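Dissemination and training. As part of the outreach component of the grant, students in the summer workshop were shown how a complex can be specified as a set of sequence lines and then modelled as a single object. The example used during the hands-on session is reproduced here so that future cohorts can follow it. Participants entered these lines:
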Amino acid sequence: MRTHNCGELRKKDIKTKVILSGWAHRIRDKGKVIWIDIRDRYGITQLIFEEEFSGSKTFNLAKKCGREFVIKIEGEVSERLSNNPNLDTGDIEIKVFNIEYLNKSEVPPFTIEDETDGGEDLRMKYRYLDLRRAPLQKNIMLRHSLMQETRIYLNSQNFLEIETPVLIKSTPEGARDFIVPSRMNKGQFYALPQSPQTFKQLLMVSGFDKYYQLVKCFRDEDLRADRQPEFTQIDCEMSFVDRENVLQNFGGLISHLFKNILDKDLGDIPVMQYDDVIKHYGTDKPDLRFGMRFNDITSIVQGKGFKVFDDSEIILSINIEGCSNYTRKQIDEITDFVKTPQIGSKGLVYIKNNEDGTIKSSVDKFYSTDDLKMIVDENNSNPSDLILILAGDEKQTISAMSSLRLLMGDRLNLRDPEIFNPVWVINFPLVAWDEESKRYHAMHHPFTSPIKDDIDLLNSNPEKVRANAYDLVINGVEIGGGSIRIHDRKLQEKVFETLGFTNEEAYNQFGFLLDAFKYGTPPHGGIAFGFDRLCALFSGQESIRDFIAFPKNTSGRDVMINTPSEIDSDQLKELGL
Amino acid sequence: MRTHNCGELRKKDIKTKVILSGWAHRIRDKGKVIWIDIRDRYGITQLIFEEEFSGSKTFNLAKKCGREFVIKIEGEVSERLSNNPNLDTGDIEIKVFNIEYLNKSEVPPFTIEDETDGGEDLRMKYRYLDLRRAPLQKNIMLRHSLMQETRIYLNSQNFLEIETPVLIKSTPEGARDFIVPSRMNKGQFYALPQSPQTFKQLLMVSGFDKYYQLVKCFRDEDLRADRQPEFTQIDCEMSFVDRENVLQNFGGLISHLFKNILDKDLGDIPVMQYDDVIKHYGTDKPDLRFGMRFNDITSIVQGKGFKVFDDSEIILSINIEGCSNYTRKQIDEITDFVKTPQIGSKGLVYIKNNEDGTIKSSVDKFYSTDDLKMIVDENNSNPSDLILILAGDEKQTISAMSSLRLLMGDRLNLRDPEIFNPVWVINFPLVAWDEESKRYHAMHHPFTSPIKDDIDLLNSNPEKVRANAYDLVINGVEIGGGSIRIHDRKLQEKVFETLGFTNEEAYNQFGFLLDAFKYGTPPHGGIAFGFDRLCALFSGQESIRDFIAFPKNTSGRDVMINTPSEIDSDQLKELGL
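and obtained this result:
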């Protein structure tokens, strides 16, 4: 049905007779001449029809051709009078002498253009038409390339791609499971995996040594703007490794992807302690494309009679380069931001470290120039910089300062989507206290190994135990996370105990894993990358939805096929529901 | 933790200091010398311990080492006195001077050997140990290689790997769906896909042109011996193609796999009509590694006074080369086989076309030598051949003869698992009458296009309509199947009507697809290969179970993790169940 696709003809093909098939993208009818742009996944080629060389039958069919008709044409490649530098095929056009409608089309509910006139809901309903638009076609092709390059790298490192089951066992740990009623075992249920965690560990017990899988995972959570009930992970596990091996291997994967997809060298990926990134950036997902580290000035500013500071748990400052000339209005905008309910600060203090060497602040009443100079020094601030200060509860202030830092990064265009700054964050806390259930929760998951030196603290002070866990963060986005796993049965039982499992609960849920630990389990560790998010990151975008061919909306619905939906009562009866 | 794996050291490495990690596979303690075979996924290496070079601490640890202990050793590669030609590493051994137990092991419930002493149930419960055995390791690695080579080929042909959703909509067509209750939309359900059929067609509507996916599919069926509730397909679809394009593309895929995995040239894959394979082999899945085509001798043998034949709907014969010397006992064995309840024939008639030119049959009473010669001629039988004849109902006799043919193929060793004879079977019937529901069922699925010339028969004689469908059969196993799809809305509605759908039912279930056909759907077609079965075929085996890392048993249970299982009543309540 075609000799070429719609993106490949060039000047060298002039005089060639060709057959193309595709969609009528744009149509310009100038009376005696008709141009139709024919489109497929590979590109766009201009067709030209004139009665003289097309013949009247073909010319009339071209006249009646509508947008999005599927057409097949025969013609001859010829030089274009005015070439179009925006198109790869812009030097040529096809003189058409035969056209066939392979299928007609009604007028689509929105335009198939890079910038469409269709609203979100309409485009979700007609997702198959939205997917015709070039930006979405590009996203899906980028996703394909990322999948293939991921496999190329991991295969080159001797990893085996192994499928783990989708119908597994429900466990009350972690997020809520989707469940699947069993007809053959009435009253019993499978669950869909939130991750293949235990299976990949069992594959290490089996001696497969290096495993990976691009795998669908499922979480029945109330969906925030950018969550999906089903999502894809690059899931990996290795045996006979320590943390350094894992970071090197998967840093290598990410570097390979950046090099081969975006032609960017990531360089060595720095490693930072969890405690340090919280201290410096107020988050375990720091955006390192810019500085503005936090400076704790609590001890400098308290006890000088300024009640707001004296009553605060913590006082934090950041230095903004070259912004001492900020106007009243600009400062007010920032102040309004930190006072919004989501941020929740009571106010903003600033110090202008002016270009002329003078220092001016919003708290001059309380602090002498020498006092302010101490703050300036603590911030390594230079003339013409601006220092912003927040005070209050420790937790809220750290979080507010983190938001303020990102805001200032945005205002100063320091968050360029084409620059990528990765960092490994390591040594997370193993557990965190959960006020609601009055017990410790695993920060990563219950199979994460504590740092060896901290194991003794499991009894006395679990919150101080560091996990041998690591996250890969790029530009403030968590791209992947993992850990060295426990491979000793006694230690695993101890951690379950710390997490408040009774022995019976532990065996009921994870007995197969504890059993497996009896029979020669090697030291192992792994990682999982959020693949949807990785795709968005590579495209410099934030929403994952348009990197998934058929996503669900925020109510977990596919409005195109209209699911979930009611089912036959017979079917429910068969399932005993 | 290792400088090399356990499969890579060779003569050239002699004198090298190495670190290996792996499992203690076999241990031979000869008092002053201890040998341990250390095993990992990559191979086995022999370790040697003597107090002299190992030191007493290491030597004593080696003495206490048990099977399946995970060990890490340091030592020096040295030449082996008597080399082992069965091992890639058989020229060397490691003189060990340091051993560390990375983990101990209890005695496994069965031996980790190619031929194990463990029964099926025990091995399923301890699947992670069964997977340590070399045959299963090889299967999973073969599966990995087949996955990668499949992608290499399809990527080279410009196919895009695109994920389709797992949480989709239940449809009453076809096999039974697994369903997933929706918490956010109470009383409503998702279904797990039996195949991504409609989604891949929508991807063609979107213009992705060439799609593939190695994808999990699900069927809630009563499991026969070799069925799994979740299985993997190589799922593909292409636009702007006819049947010839599809057969060429995917014949190319299969040829690529055979060449790159088994180093076998498949050659051109023959194409046979459905009607012809039924006529010649009595099945749409013919094993073409050997001949023995059916010959219908009904018209030759009836009316000669042999009541058994005269009362039969059909009389079929096959010619077995070189078997005229079969003994009474051998003939009796075959006769017993065709009389078993599964086959259901009343008896077997034979004609011995003896080497000396004489002809001897079990029905000499009823047929003259000339009569028998006609049968011999019809069968192109040569002296020293044996002709076997079955008679009875048409359907039963065809089926029985097909089984008899396979039996004779087995007896004569004509079904060599290392020989592969593929065939495309085309032009299946579009529909078949279902007595139970009193309506036509789609033989393939409702989206399959009829052969153009037969469309008019949809009204008058639907059973005579041929589908533009094709199956790839290798050695009597259906490896893949597909069709050119309907891309015209009116024709799709007509086929739904033929299948007994009301207009409302059709729109309720497949409205999104019928809608999509309004907006410029290209001609398209595709195929899906059963990936688990393909893996088994490549290994010359029949059961798929050992090509799946964690399969379910015939009750749909994973006995290792013990699922399906009961779940919390809270969780059920949340789901409104």
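The longest strand of chain B covers residues 17-29. Students were then asked to discuss how this feature might be tested experimentally.
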